[in-house]
């Protein structure tokens, strides 16, 4: 949530600077009358880029980030699909990002939605899934859901072996789009429409032109199409074209949205402007349009920047800030690919359940955080520490042999045993059991962890607060 607020502040600052800078440019370029008229047009056009970012580009980049989420891939690649875990994952995303998410599983042939609902993907009933899974490309913007038409941003998901796992994405009702566009038209006075590469109108501020379950309106059906037909036939842009609708002049602006392969058309009424002022206005508006496009590109890269940071938050444990399992697995793969041997240490807080039972879960969380802080302070800069689950932690020690890893574990065990954790008006003490193993083979992390887990089991069997080790014999 903090990342999203930071993103919103950055975008607000970006467009605030744009409005100020462009307004000042108008003042220097043209007369006071043209400045005033151009400023009105600029104030009506500039917000549409914010609208595009908010309503289309931001959901698109979030869905692209989601398609690369290690956690979601693991859920969709599992031998048995954990429906509750997928539903919880999507619901958590909806809660934090205020968007509706879905995941369609190839293994289960079932679609899961962030509102908790799900349904079977049945041939003949859910045509989009079976049509798109064999289609070239990994991203699709599609209309669907007959009773309430939605725009769906669908992305294919693959596992590490490039095996198709299904689709993830975001769905938004066309009614939501229309309501936003209607509000913009009431404030800024222009009509807008989004057109796909077939010349079909998908979204518009005019409700009669919005796509429905029955039909899609084509540009060729519009009354003013004949005025620009030759330009379109020659492949020319319609940007800064003048058209007449019901004896009223409009300035037509065209924006190409590369990621969707769509075009956005803005129809701004010129009304009573004189011809010479109109011509001057078109020249200056074209300059403004170029500048705004540059700002749009800057906003696009800003969104990608925040999308990368959003992906990082998916790899952190929320309570401790340590690496979660997904990031631990990535780190392990990098160590193995670099050809380094390593030691792995599993750490389990002894009798943690009794802490929760006797002092409450807040005390348990405090213990978890204090232990994680101690672990971070006890390792080398290139070592990796993560939360493996519950009260269990893991250390990856690249280049460390078994005796060194045992020494590290023993030192940390002593530090933990002497650690005093303040809670309310008392101090809590904890101990932990350690399972250590060493591997110089290119094997899966789960196999190495299994050996460390056996050593950890021996430490518990010997009375806990112990360090036990086993060699990786895989």
UniProtKB/TrEMBL annotation:
Q: Which UniProt keywords apply?
A: Membrane, Transmembrane, Transmembrane helix
Q: Which Gene3D superfamilies match?
A: 3.30.70.270
Q: By its UniProt entry, which PANTHER family does this protein fall under?
A: DIGUANYLATE CYCLASE DGCM-RELATED, REGULATORY COMPONENTS OF SENSORY TRANSDUCTION SYSTEM
Task: Name the residues that span the membrane.
Answer: 12-35, 281-303
Required co-factor(s) are: Mg(2+)
- Protein name (record): diguanylate cyclase
Organism, per UniProt? Thalassomonas viridans
Top-tier EC class: transferase
Please list the residue ranges annotated as the GGDEF domain.
340-472
Point out the coiled-coil segments of this chain.
Answer: none
Q: Which SUPFAM superfamilies match?
A: Nucleotide cyclase
Q: Which domain of life is it from?
A: Bacteria
The GO molecular function terms of this record are: diguanylate cyclase activity
Catalytic activity reported: 2 GTP = 3',3'-c-di-GMP + 2 diphosphate
Protein EC: 2.7.7.65
């Amino acid at each position: 949530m903090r990342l999203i607020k930071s993103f919103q502040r950055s975008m607000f600052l970006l467009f605030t600077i744009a409005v100020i800078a462009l307004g000042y440019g108008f003042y220097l370029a043209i007369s006071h009358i043209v400045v005033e008229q151009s400023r009105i047009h600029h104030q009506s056009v500039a917000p549409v880029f914010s609208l595009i970012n908010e309503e289309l580009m931001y959901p698109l980049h979030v869905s692209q980030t989601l398609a690369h989420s290690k956690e979601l891939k693991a859920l969709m690649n599992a031998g048995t699909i954990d429906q509750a875990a997928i539903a919880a994952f999507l619901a958590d995303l909806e809660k934090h990002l205020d968007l509706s998410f879905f995941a369609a599983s190839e293994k289960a042939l079932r679609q899961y939605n962030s509102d908790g609902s799900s349904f079977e993907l049945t041939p003949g009933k859910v045509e989009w899934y079976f049509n798109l899974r064999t289609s070239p490309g990994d991203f699709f913007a599609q209309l669907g859901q007959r009773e309430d038409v939605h725009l769906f941003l669908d992305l294919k998901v693959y596992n590490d072996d490039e095996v198709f796992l299904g689709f993830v994405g975001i769905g938004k009702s066309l009614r939501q789009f229309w309501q936003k566009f209607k509000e913009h038209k009431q404030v800024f006075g222009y009509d807008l429409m989004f057109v796909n590469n077939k010349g079909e109108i998908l979204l518009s501020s005019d409700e009669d032109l919005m796509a429905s379950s029955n039909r899609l309106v084509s540009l060729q059906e519009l009354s003013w199409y004949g005025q620009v037909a030759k330009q379109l036939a020659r492949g020319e842009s319609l940007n800064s074209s003048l058209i007449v609708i019901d004896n009223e002049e409009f300035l037509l602006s065209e924006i190409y949205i590369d990621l969707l392969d769509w075009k956005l058309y803005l129809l701004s009424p010129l009304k009573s402007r004189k011809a010479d002022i109109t011509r001057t206005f078109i020249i200056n508006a074209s300059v403004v349009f170029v500048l705004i496009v540059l700002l749009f590109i800057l906003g696009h890269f800003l969104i990608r920047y925040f999308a990368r940071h959003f992906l990082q938050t998916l790899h952190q444990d929320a309570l401790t800030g340590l690496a979660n399992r997904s990031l631990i697995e990535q780190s392990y793969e990098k160590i193995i690919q670099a050809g380094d041997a390593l030691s792995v240490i599993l750490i389990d807080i002894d009798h943690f359940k009794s802490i929760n039972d006797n002092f409450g879960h807040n005390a348990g969380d405090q213990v978890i955080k204090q232990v994680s802080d101690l672990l971070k302070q006890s390792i080398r800069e290139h070592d990796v520490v993560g939360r493996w689950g519950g009260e269990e932690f893991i250390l990856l020690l690249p280049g460390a042999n078994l005796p060194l890893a045992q020494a590290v574990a023993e030192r940390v065990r002593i530090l933990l045993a002497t650690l005093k954790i303040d809670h309310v008006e008392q101090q809590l003490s904890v101990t932990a059991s350690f399972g250590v193993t060493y591997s110089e083979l290119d094997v899966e992390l789960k196999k190495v962890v299994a050996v460390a887990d056996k050593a950890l089991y021996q430490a518990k069997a010997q009375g806990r607060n112990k360090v036990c080790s086993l060699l990786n014999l895989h």
